[in-house]
Design brief:
By secondary structure, the chain is an alpha+beta fold. The protein is globular. The protein starts with 17 loop residues before the first strand and ends with a strand. The relative contact order is 0.13. 16% of the residues lie in helices and 35% in strands. Strand 9 and strand 10 form a beta hairpin. It is built from 3 helices and 14 strands. The longest helix has 18 residues. The strands form 4 sheets. It has a 4-stranded antiparallel sheet with strand order 4-3-6-7, with no helix packed on it.
Length: 255
């Protein structure tokens, strides 16, 4: 039985900090892009937040500033089709990646905190159309208006000793999938929410991710305190993973 902390733990002190950066993109059928960023701050102290969207080569695509006197700061970018390159699964196009930097300053202009997320832009849909002459619905993925033939594998933890899995080992295993003409990996619900580097590599390689929540192979209780812990787990996991373009679906359980 594995118990106890096994990922890094740190102690941080601050006056005011960035609690959460929620960046979402809405890619229309015409493939123009709207970007929404919502910064949550630890206090209602007066100040400013800057948002800078950059391409992989460091060039600035868009930027703006907003006040932070409500404990939040929001940004919105309208990007016409062609302004940014869209992200595609491997075999269907390239995987251009961008960064958005959120910087928090006080009224004196002093930097209090900075967070950087690596993101990409794609229109992802689960297509569920009625079947012809029979009951049921289709179930397939569409990226940037292209229906994707998904072929892939099931991912279980890569080692019984989780801390021995290095970024190099992650990349070698995931590279094998691409070399084997696979374009989707399903993270099994009986394993772990994988390390950030796993999803970073999937973003880079163009591997679509079917992400299970970790409720596999068993019957789970439904009393209030357990359901509350599930709510916290799901909330924390989605906030950590939601900016990855490779993740196209979260599944409630696996079996």
């Amino acid at each position: 039985m594995n118990v106890g902390p096994w990922r890094p733990i740190s102690l941080q002190t601050y006056e005011t900090r960035i609690v959460d950066v929620d960046v979402r993109s809405d890619v229309s059928e015409a493939l123009d892009v709207k970007v929404y960023a919502d910064l949550t701050i630890s206090s209602n102290a007066m100040g400013h937040a800057s948002f800078v969207l950059k391409a992989a080569n460091g060039s600035v695509v868009a930027s703006t500033t907003a006040s932070t006197n409500s404990g939040h700061a929001k940004a919105h970018f309208d990007l016409p089709a062609g302004k940014v390159d869209l992200w595609y699964p491997v075999g269907y196009g390239k995987q251009p990646l961008y960064t958005i930097e959120a910087k928090l300053t006080n009224e004196l202009g002093e930097v209090l905190d900075t967070q950087i997320l690596r993101i990409a832009f794609r229109r992802a849909r689960v297509v569920q159309d009625k079947l012809i002459d029979q009951e049921g619905l289709t179930f397939l993925f569409e990226i940037n208006n292209i229906r994707i033939f998904c072929g892939g594998a099931n991912w279980i933890p890569a080692d019984s000793f989780l801390t021995t899995v290095t970024p190099e080992r992650y990349k070698a295993w995931l590279r094998l999938m691409v070399d084997g003409n696979q374009n989707m990996v399903r993270v099994w619900g009986g394993g772990i929410y994988e390390n950030d580097v796993f999803y970073d590599i999937c973003d880079e390689l163009g591997l679509l991710v079917w992400q299970d929540f970790m409720f596999g192979c068993g019957q789970y209780p439904a009393y209030d305190s357990f359901l509350k812990s599930v709510e916290v787990e799901v909330d924390q996991s989605i906030k950590r993973l939601r900016h990855h373009p490779s993740i196209v679906i979260f599944a409630g359980n696996n079996e």
